[in-house]
């Protein structure tokens, strides 16, 4: 480029001078002779060949064009070099800060523009010979330069959240050797003259180092075994990670299917995933120390066990006398977390006592409470809910909180069972399902141990928000017969700890003294991950808003208590029952494997007030809606105990089948008149909205839920609900 420019500067004045001389000679000759000569003597250019003026002009044009072309090529080359240089600087700056800090003293070598100043690589087999300096990567491989920069940028971006390795670890040296060996990779010239050949680890395991650098592994993946064994970590790192190292070794770095939460919905999803994809590996992360288990027995059958070690075995007898464990599967069913990556046929692993505190939905990874990160392909959020507490109890102080139980988990059952054997009085605040079940369970124990059991609630009767008033009053009398002192229309004003007793002051002036409080006032959906994951929370019902396929975002599904879904018949809802957890978890698992099925199932729930009275419900059961009840006289087989003996399972939702809904035939037996209007032995209660049945309760009527589900699904208007009640055959013996 410089030579062409120099030649052009020399030739241009000569060409212009020669042309001027020729023109002047022609004019002078014509004037002297009085006419234009027939032959003009040729003017010879001092630097050009002999010939006429036309040849000189052609030569000048050729020289000019050659100069312009050379200048254009030089400008394009300089601009291209400048762009590649800027990309290289940006790539170097995007690397982990600690790695760049280690090589900053060599930074001037990057700015060198002359190829002769590049330093040769220390490895002779990977670098050019000392006689031929190594050219920059832009000149050596201009076609692959952009791709190489993009590849390295992706690697750098995937590792930005990872703490860079210490300066004396062989990771940086390995990347330098790889850069020298591969022409497509972008070398970091600052590292070229580091004395990396002295590292014994690099010489022993270069392949392992290449894998770490070339494949952007998940940020939480531990270093390969070869590196961790041969190169000890610095003392400072060992001291800071001494406690977390054993735990992090058991945490898989990647899970194709990640399920957050260890409840019923997660286990149902895991089972569904494995059914559709037998080789799948599923990881369940739960903040509880226990494997997945069912919650209903915690407030039902476990309290009626005669085994004094029930809190340890967590085995119970169902109403039909069969023994069962509260856990869905024994420990042998699951894969150990440390064997998760090497499981040949896949499996389900459970990471206990670990809480997910942050979700990166763009990076498809989560962070645990110990800062461990796990990447995933598909993720299910089934975090359930958190028991609510009364604000007056929370503000009452530490002594009151120590004597208050929020009932939800296995540890809550163990704690309350132990407390109930060592105190004289216990008060349950809440008249819903959980409060009434615990009141009946503890009430039966009161006849044996002399424990005083008190239940208080703001409604007029037990389950007053669900049952019609007449049935709520009947239920309240049933609870009293179990040995429970019921205080209705009770609004708690304050709670104090005084003279080793808890004093509960009601707004109407009544005072209740007790030793322990059980708060059963509802559940708050656990949406702690909504902010970090950018998920929408429903403002009316709470929980994560999901579409018809239970999907909140791409690759993220929600099931169980935390899901706010759209019911095609009843509108948007959020359900907090076992059957919904089973069905929604199962559907979410199917959709995670590509089923793309909508959620249309009408889930049911049930509650037992001991082995003699129980009910099953479906749809919207709200006591504020108009209701129509059809009752009949109960028999010995119309009890929860008889129902479980017939079905063979204590979890009644497990025995449901959709087939029975299509084969139901209305009973031809006329409905007999009920002799005593307060004798609600068994019956069906319809909840009506706009002349359409939106909810049904089967009172001591079992194994008829598919019929109720079909009635709600059809959404038809019924002129006489007594005729509809015949579908349940409640008048047959």
Which SSEs are present, and which pair or pack?
Blueprint: H1 2-33, H2 53-93, H3 97-102, H4 108-111, H5 137-140, H6 145-158, H7 171-181, H8 200-204, H9 206-214, H10 225-230, H11 235-240, H12 245-249, E1 254-260, H13 264-276, E2 281-285, H14 310-313, E3 315-317, E4 323-325, E5 347-351, E6 356-360, E7 365-368, E8 373-381, E9 385-387, H15 391-394, H16 398-402, E10 404-406, H17 410-420, E11 425-429, H18 433-449, E12 452-456, H19 469-481, E13 484-487, E14 492-498, E15 501-506, E16 511-514, E17 516-519, E18 523-525, H20 530-533, E19 544-545, E20 551-553, E21 556-558, E22 563-567, E23 571-573, H21 578-592, E24 604-608, E25 614-619, E26 627-632, H22 640-647, H23 659-662, E27 682-689, E28 692-699, H24 705-714, H25 721-725
Parallel strand pairs: 1-2, 1-8, 2-5, 8-21, 10-17, 11-12, 11-17, 12-13, 19-22
Antiparallel strand pairs: 3-4, 6-7, 7-8, 9-18, 14-15, 15-16, 20-21, 22-23, 24-25, 25-28, 26-27, 27-28
Helix pairs in contact: 1-2, 2-6, 7-9, 13-21
